[in-house]
Amino acid sequence: MIIMSFDVVVIGGGPAGMMAAGQAASLGAKVIIIDKNHNLGQKLLLTGKGRCNITQAEFNDQEFIKKLGKKGQFLFSALAVFGPEEIIKFFESRGLKTKVERGGRVFPASDKAQEILDVLLKYLREKKVKILSDKKVFGFNIKDKKIVSVKLADQDICAQSFILCTGGKAYQATGSTGDGYNWVKSLGHKIVNPVPVLVPIETKEAWPKNLQGLSLKNIRLNLWQNNKKQDTRFGEMLFTHFGLSGPIVLDISKKIGELLLKGEVIIEIDLKPALDISQLDKRLRRDFVANPNRDFKNYLPDLLPKKIIETFIEFCGIDARKKLNAISRQDRKKIAGILKSLKTKVKKLKGFNQAIVTNGGVDLKEIDSRTMRSKIIDNLFFAGEIIDLDGPTGGYNLQICWSSGFAAGTYAGKKISIGNFQ
User: Do the beta carbons of residue 386 and residue 363 sit within 8 Å?
Assistant: First the structure.
């Protein structure tokens, strides 16, 4: 049996793992990254549709944390030390220019995720981090509430500190298969049940599927359950061969998952959110008067994308060839109502293979939020998606990786006794 020895072992070569390893090595620690894939950063290359939305340009920590929900306060210490400003400076100081797009999304100016990965890999080389790829971890050797070594097929690797950055279950093709959860449970940690979030939605009705490929911008999406509005989003959505996707659908999917546990969920699409029902009716009345002999079907392109017109006519139940001057007041009210409320029922959320992020993971109550150190195993640290913290689309989840990875690398890499951490 081969035995290798390091100061810090990082398991998982995603964004959190690379940041943790580089930071620990910057403090003088001898560091190794172990990854089951042949190359590091596989999931990073897929983020932002290959453009890599590296962070969110929200420089007020409290406002950033609000977006993470009830558990967001956990990130406060790590975010205060290494937040969006710091990660932007990290990349720009290494020659990578960034840009801010709609919604505060920060991307590399080149729109190439590969450039982000290249900077991180160069950072690891400069800090002399050893990379051990194509290696499956089989668990840990424990003694006196400390990890002594990590077990591979052909060797044990010893260290003073271990950082677990194995991710969740989203994007399983990149190696995020939830392996870390089993190891953590075997060490005595609690795992909050992992579920897919930022995930597309399968609908019960066929009509959304018939509109596959249609993207709608500047629309409002409302969630209803038991005749009560539960949540809302404004922005862009996409019809797919199974139902709905796009930014606002992904964002609201976490809430849908919670509501589905209680019963049926209805999605309401407001195609004209800038106008209330009264204003919309006035516009229709004005248009109908101005174009009395126009067919209903030929008028609708003034209101809607062509691809949705046939479906819209079916919802209205009005003859497509009917002249506008022949449409009754009651029918006009119905048209306005459907423009404000196009409904479909949720069948289910798509699974982990289509999810961007995992909700759930290592219970935050068992992690020191300042250091990312385990409260159960003295020399174990966590970073990234393996912990029970996630946010909406827009760079929030990658920032969780950067902030938690930096904190874990800082405290795992310090040349002091693990027992001195407070």
Answer: no
